[in-house]
DNA sequence: CTTGAAAAGAACTGCCT
DNA sequence: AGGCAGTTCTTTTCAAG
């Protein structure tokens, strides 16, 4: 675990909302010089606190109107079947994330589809046929609020 | 829905993995000039396909070793209680995302905590006391694979 | 830590095919 | 739509306090 001071936290708070902010702009907001802010950002990147910068795409604009969360309980669980399941799930283009979890389910999948008819096709042809897949439970996303989380 | 050609898709594929790539670098990879790539990126941003650029933070490096997915079924559901629930949930710092879903649950929450003891504190003190919260089901994240999804 | 300056690179503009 | 040339701005590094 890496120790951060309050200034580092403020930098991360600003950047996680908008990663396109320049070091100069960050510095202006926090009362730091441009090089000071830049050095801190570089340090946070080097020590791994900043793991990357990603584009946020508008799924609706891309024609994916439906997002579904799947909870999958495997029928048979050996180490081999976990790897097998993950590889097969990762090969489905509509699957956005694969989370291995402990609890009622074994895996949580985030799946996008053009519409519900498209989702049904994916569910029947791709998800239900995943190796080892037992019970599958689905929740259709109505709205999402992306918060930032603690810092 | 916005129509994209194959070049636009290639640009998005490159940027969604690493949003810090410059227009020039993108152009080099696709055999486009820097202004051509830049104009396409601007167009994608203006028409809303690119919704933003976000930092990816390493939660472990920040001292949050535990991520838990909660499925929450509300006890009473009126429009008022949905808003109330969302506002109260959003006020919990450890809550990273709030998804309103249709299915077995009403809400899915992504929660981070320093460790399991910390999570128990959050669950008992903050989650269980959310207005309208009925059944709460939890899945502890073991590992996560972030894929990109279709394009 | 700061300021200032300089070099490199990226962003942006206008004009051309 | 794309390319080329040029301008402006930011990033990045360095020197010095």
Element layout with pairings:
The structure is a homodimer of 151-residue chains.
Chain A lengths: L5 H12 L5 H8 L3 H13 L3 E8 L8 E9 L4 H12 L4 E9 L3 E7 L2 H12 L5 E14 L5
Antiparallel strand pairs in A: 2-4, 2-5, 3-4
Chain B binds a DNA duplex (17 and 17 nucleotides) through α2 and α3.
Please give a structural write-up.
The structure is a homodimer of 151-residue chains. The first copy, chain A, is an alpha+beta fold and 151 residues long. Chain A has two domains: 6-46, Winged helix-like DNA-binding domain superfamily/Winged helix DNA-binding domain (Arc Repressor Mutant, subunit A); 66-140, 2-Layer Sandwich (Alpha-Beta Plaits). Chain A contains five helices and five strands; from the N terminus they run αααββαββαβ. A four-stranded antiparallel β-sheet of chain A has the order 3-4-2-5. In chain A, helix 2 crosses helix 3. The longest helix of chain A is centred in the first third of the chain and has 13 residues, at 34-46. The mean pLDDT of chain A is 93. At the A-B interface, helix 1, strand 1, strand 3 and strand 5 of A face helix 1, strand 1, strand 3 and strand 5 of B. Strand 3 (95-103) of chain A pairs antiparallel with strand 5 of chain B. The structure holds a DNA duplex (17 and 17 nucleotides).
């Amino acid at each position: 675990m890496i120790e951060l001071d309050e200034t580092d936290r403020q930098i991360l708070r600003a950047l996680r909302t908008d990663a396109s902010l320049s070091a100069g702009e960050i510095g202006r907001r926090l009362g730091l010089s441009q090089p000071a802010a830049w050095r801190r950002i570089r340090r946070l990147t080097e020590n791994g606190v900043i793991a990357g910068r990603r584009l946020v795409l508008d799924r609706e604009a891309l024609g994916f109107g439906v997002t579904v969360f799947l909870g999958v309980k495997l029928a048979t669980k050996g180490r081999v079947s976990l790897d097998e399941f993950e590889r097969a799930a990762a090969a489905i283009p509509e699957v956005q994330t694969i989370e291995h979890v402990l609890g009622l389910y074994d895996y949580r999948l985030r799946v996008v589809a053009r519409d519900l008819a498209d989702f049904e096709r994916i569910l029947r042809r791709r998800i239900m046929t995943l190796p080892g897949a037992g019970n599958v439970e689905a929740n259709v996303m109505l709205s999402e609020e992306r918060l930032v989380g603690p810092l």
